[in-house]
């Protein structure tokens, strides 16, 4: 009888130890699963993850709060929604006087305003005509386009004060077949074409020409009978 009681005691002791071990294992596995779920939410940018940065502030929509201010030559894209007879979406270039022309409300000062500031200005201006209008100014993608006889034709980020030669340098320079004296610059704002003598501009900056966001630089090919 004594041996049976001892055996039962040992058995209960073993079962209690096993139960504690099983409980600890369940807690560890559960914690690991929660950690994985949190990391996956952040990685995939689920709505509850900390990576979510978009917001909708009233009728002014944005995805970032730290936009740079618009400058002359920048492209402006504006979308309207929220009402049945909303104005037509607008695509324009900031003019030399820093403005753009809008339907119904006329000339609007843009230069120096961020995207959020411009959205608020437009919303306020249009409030006399539309009470529930949603205004969205799209992000300002500032590039110049360099094509033709350059080593790496592509689009390049526009920088304030950029010139034709600087843009060509960003494209790794002229090829051996470039006709450097006949560089063509097409203004995105009015489609005017400006001819630049790249040979002179390299030696004398006074021959260089400033470029603006959206401009296209084309370097033609030189043939045997052509001068540089």
Question: What can you tell me about this protein's structure?
Answer:
The structure is a single chain. The chain is of the alpha+beta class and 228 residues long. It has helices at 2-44, 115-126, 164-170, 198-203, and strands at residues 55-57, 60-62, 75-81, 90-93, 99-102, 106-109, 134-137, 143-148, 154-157, 183-186, 193-196, 216-219. The strands form 4 sheets. A 5-stranded mixed beta sheet has the order 9-8-12-10-11, covered by helices on one side. Strands 4-3-7 form a 3-stranded antiparallel beta sheet, with helices on one face. A two-stranded antiparallel sheet has the order 1-2. It starts with a helix and ends in a 9-residue tail after the last strand.
Strand order of the largest sheet: 9-8-12-10-11
From the coordinates shown, what is the CATH architecture of the largest domain? Answer: 2-Layer Sandwich
Mean pLDDT: 77
What is the CATH C-level name of the largest domain?
Alpha Beta
Let me know the largest β-sheet.
5 strands, mixed
Which stretches are low in confidence, meaning pLDDT under 50 for 5 or more residues running? 1-6, 32-66
Give the total of beta strands: 12
CATH fold-level assignment of the largest domain: wza like fold
Cα Rg: 32 Å
Provide the helix percentage.
25-40%
What would you call the shape? elongated
Q: Give the H and E element order.
A: HEEEEEEHEEEHEEHE
SSE layout:
Layout: H1 2-44, E1 55-57, E2 60-62, E3 75-81, E4 90-93, E5 99-102, E6 106-109, H2 115-126, E7 134-137, E8 143-148, E9 154-157, H3 164-170, E10 183-186, E11 193-196, H4 198-203, E12 216-219
């Amino acid at each position: 009888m004594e041996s049976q009681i001892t055996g039962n005691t040992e058995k209960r002791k073993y079962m209690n130890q096993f139960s504690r071990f099983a409980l600890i294992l369940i807690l560890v596995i559960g914690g690991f699963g929660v950690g994985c779920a949190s990391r996956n939410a952040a990685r995939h940018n689920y709505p509850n993850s900390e990576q979510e940065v978009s917001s909708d502030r009233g009728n002014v929509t944005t995805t970032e709060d730290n936009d740079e201010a618009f400058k002359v030559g920048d492209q402006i894209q504006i979308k309207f929604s929220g009402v049945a007879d909303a104005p037509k979406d607008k695509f324009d270039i900031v003019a030399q006087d820093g403005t753009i022309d809008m339907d119904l409300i006329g000339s609007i000062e843009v230069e120096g305003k961020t995207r959020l500031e411009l959205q608020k200005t437009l919303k306020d201006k249009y409030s006399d005509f539309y009470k529930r209008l949603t205004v969205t100014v799209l992000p300002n993608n500032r590039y110049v386009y360099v094509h033709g006889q350059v080593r790496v034709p592509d689009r390049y980020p526009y920088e304030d004060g950029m010139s034709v030669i600087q843009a060509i340098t960003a494209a790794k320079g002229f090829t051996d077949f470039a006709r450097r004296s006949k560089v063509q610059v097409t203004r995105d704002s009015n489609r005017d074409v400006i001819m630049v003598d790249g040979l002179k501009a390299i030696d004398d900056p006074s021959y260089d020409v400033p470029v603006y966001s959206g401009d296209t630089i084309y370097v033609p090919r030189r043939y045997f009978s052509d001068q540089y």
